[in-house]
Design brief:
alpha+beta, Heme iron utilization protein-like fold, six-stranded antiparallel beta sheet, two-stranded antiparallel ribbon, about 30% helix, globular, Heme utilization protein HuvX, HutX-like, Heme_Transport_Util_sf
Length: about 180
């Protein structure tokens, strides 16, 4: 049974305003802000200034994924209210077929996510813990994270230079696409 819950507009606006205040303070995790204010991650991402976030439609899932597969070993992350899971892995290229995006898995990692499940892809570049935090976030139809790909850090906790350059190139490309 599907039960639709209607949130009064003023309550939603109040929660959005509180989330915006939390973002302005700066160091909070985006997922945590969404959970704390009972919002979808999509709502919190939309509050970020354009200098920190760029959105691509979910129909570009395969194109973005295949670009990420050229980055080398990345941090694949997923989380929910109960915890987070991160692993460093080489993403494999894939192709669409039978409603799925099939990966040519040669390394541990996700396999065959539904290509229709991805509603949007967000690129996020924002300060976090005194450093830049860069992520490619895949959102589902409900506006929550399917998973994230993070720019890997070296032992000194600095962004991997090669991945940082690839992220910046992706940022420039999708910034142009999302502004048209």
């Amino acid at each position: 049974m599907n039960i639709a819950v209607t949130i009064p507009a003023s309550d939603f606006a109040t929660r959005l305003q509180a989330a915006g205040t939390a973002l302005a303070i700066g160091d909070a995790d985006l997922d945590e802000i969404a959970r704390r204010h009972d919002l979808a991650l999509r709502d919190v991402l939309a509050l970020l200034p354009s200098s920190q976030a760029c959105k691509a439609d979910g129909r570009y899932f395969a194109e973005v994924w295949d670009e990420l597969a050229s980055w080398g070993r990345v941090v694949f992350a997923t989380s929910d209210a109960h915890g987070a899971f991160e692993m460093t892995t080489q993403l494999q290229p894939g192709r669409a077929g039978r409603g799925l995006f099939n990966l040519f898995a040669l390394a541990p990692g996700p396999d065959a996510p539904s290509r229709d499940l991805c509603a949007a892809v967000w690129l996020v570049d924002r300060p976090r813990s005194g450093r830049g935090s860069r992520a490619v976030i895949f959102l589902n139809q409900a506006g929550d994270a399917l998973f994230k790909i993070l720019v890997r850090r070296d032992v000194a906790r600095q962004p991997d230079g090669n991945q940082l350059a690839k992220f910046e190139a992706m940022w420039a490309k999708w910034r142009r696409c999302s502004s048209t």
